[in-house]
Known about the structure:
Layout: E1 3-8, E2 11-17, E3 24-30, E4 38-41, H1 44-53
Antiparallel strand pairs: 1-2, 2-3, 3-4
Amino acid sequence: MPRRLRRVGPVEIGSARDRRSGRAGYLAACTRNDCGWSAHYATPEAAELASRSHRCTPR
């Protein structure tokens, strides 16, 4: 379960482990119901940059 570090707009960033590799990193995930975007990053700076540039694309 990711630990919440910060929120940028609708995107939450938290520390997490990758399920496949077990690597520690940072997860950025959009919290809007119709979006579904998420990604795993090695640094909190990369996750924050991605969250600032994220634009929701409803499915």
